[in-house]
Specification:
177 residues; CV3147-like; seven-stranded antiparallel sheet; 16% helix
């Protein structure tokens, strides 16, 4: 489908929207886009300001390996990024399926779904989808904390690492499981 899908459903009634929607999602996405645009304009994506968006620059480096697994082992696909300069050393390994789900730096889990992990081209700030991964480009990896409603035990059953076949345990950015 080229990464696109459309769906029409009935409009939820009464209290359903307050239970289903995350307030501020569009505003946060727009603010992220503006932060990327500012960093690109200033010529330094590594200086991107994400603190007000409950986010951080997780890693910078060069894509050095892409392993893709088939439907029998969807949790086996991974991207390896070799750190380059400015305090980024070692290797960041990102587990993915159709989206980036977990990130380990030198074997230590640093980010996990439902938090958002984004890989962007370090020069342009453009996002790189899992379908477009290839060896060579210099990238920045962004980590945005999930809304607290997505980190409850009930929500993690559907959107946590185990829901995607990973044995990892989600921990919020403040270290609380």
């Amino acid at each position: 489908m080229g990464g696109l899908a459309y769906m029409a459903t009935p409009v939820p009634r009464e209290s359903a929207p307050s239970e289903m929607l995350i307030p501020g999602s569009y505003s946060r996405a727009r603010a992220l886009g503006l932060a990327l645009r500012r960093a690109r304009r200033d010529g330094d994506l590594r200086a991107i300001a994400l603190e007000s968006l409950r986010g951080r620059l997780l890693f910078c480096g060069m894509m050095q390996g892409v392993e893709r697994q088939g439907p029998d082992d969807p949790a086996g696909s991974a991207l390896s990024i070799a750190g380059q300069g400015d305090g980024y050393s070692g290797v960041l390994r990102i587990g993915f399926q159709t989206e980036y789900l977990l990130a380990w730096h030198d074997g230590e889990l640093r980010a996990a779904t439902p938090d958002a992990i984004a890989v962007v081209d370090e020069e342009t700030g453009e996002p790189i989808s899992t379908e477009a991964l290839r060896i060579g480009p210099r990238v920045a990896v962004l980590h945005l904390d999930a809304d607290p409603r997505m980190t409850t035990a009930r929500a993690l059953e559907r959107v946590g690492p185990a829901a995607f076949g990973y044995a990892a345990v989600y921990h919020r950015a403040d270290g609380v499981p």
